[in-house]
Amino acid sequence: EVSITKFPADERKIIAKAHDKYKKARAGIINTRHGQIHTPAFMPVGTKGTVKAMLPESVQTTGADIILGNTYHLMLQPGAKRVFKLGGLHKFMNWSKPLLTDSGGFQVMSLSKLRKITEEGVIFNSHIDGSKFMLSPESSTEIQYLLGSTITMAFDECTPYPSTYEQAKSSMELTSRWAKRSRKAFYSRDGYGQFGIIQGSIYNDLRLKSALDLIELDFEGYAIGGLAVGEGQELMFKVLDYAPDLLPINKPRYLMGVGKPADIIGAVQRGIDMFDCVIPTRSGRNGQAFTKYGVVNIRNSKYKEDNTPLEEDCLCPACKNYTKAYLHYLVKVKEILGAMLMTWHNLMYFQKLMLRIREYIAQGKDFDFIS
Ligand SMILES: COC(=O)c1ccc(CCNc2nc3cc4nc(N)[nH]c(=O)c4cc3[nH]2)cc1
Ligand SMILES: [Zn+2]
Question: Is 102 a catalytic residue?
Answer without folding.
Answer: yes
